[in-house]
Recover the amino acids of this structure.
């Protein structure tokens, strides 16, 4: 059986690092893994989407609407935008952080109100204040690893395998904060 995981965020939030941690961990467990790299304007603070698919045999990394088992959303508006991709019985793990997109910054639009309620009324939402946990861990950029920790707790992959992959994937100078961030997410 194939697992489809979609990672959505804003450029600079670490979607690629998260997809590499996830992909390397499941590959280490013997699964066939396919990753997409980046879709979107990652350099300009725009929407970024990466796909991770794994299973016995995977042919394409692309995830269509209604196919994602899990969506990791690093920003709540991106979570809202990704909702159509979640399976009926899927789970969205979302950071509660709000980052104004360019139309809001320029005053052309307003940030949607009560977005969390709109999401949770339609899908299974696990909302996490990942920014506070990342800050507590020592690096606000480790929001991605907090959310990986939340997701990892609900997989059949042992805790030690996730830690091993983080140690191999995250640069040394950020390792301590990312290990703490993972633990905060894992232990929610």
């Amino acid at each position: 059986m194939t697992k489809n995981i979609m990672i959505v965020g804003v450029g600079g939030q670490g979607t690629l690092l998260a997809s590499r941690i996830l992909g390397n961990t499941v590959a280490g467990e013997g699964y066939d893994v396919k990753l997409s790299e980046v879709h979107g304007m990652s350099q300009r603070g725009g929407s970024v989407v990466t796909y991770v698919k794994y299973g016995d045999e995977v042919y394409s990394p692309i995830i269509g609407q209604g196919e994602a088992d899990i969506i990791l959303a690093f920003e709540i508006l991106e979570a809202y935008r990704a909702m159509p991709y979640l399976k009926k019985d899927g789970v969205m793990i979302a950071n509660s952080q709000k980052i104004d997109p360019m139309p809001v910054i320029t005053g052309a639009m307003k940030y949607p109100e009560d977005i969390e309620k709109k999401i949770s009324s339609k899908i299974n939402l696990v909302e996490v204040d990942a920014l506070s946990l990342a800050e507590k861990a020592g690096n606000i950029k480790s929001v991605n690893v907090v959310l990986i920790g939340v997701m990892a707790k609900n997989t059949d992959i042992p805790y030690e395998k996730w830690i091993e992959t983080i140690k191999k994937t995250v640069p040394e100078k950020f390792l301590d904060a990312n290990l703490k961030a993972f633990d905060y997410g894992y232990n929610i």
Notes: The CA atoms of residues 131 and 155 lie 23 Å apart. The helical segments are 15-28, 76-82, 102-105, 115-120, 130-137, 143-152, 159-169, 172-186.
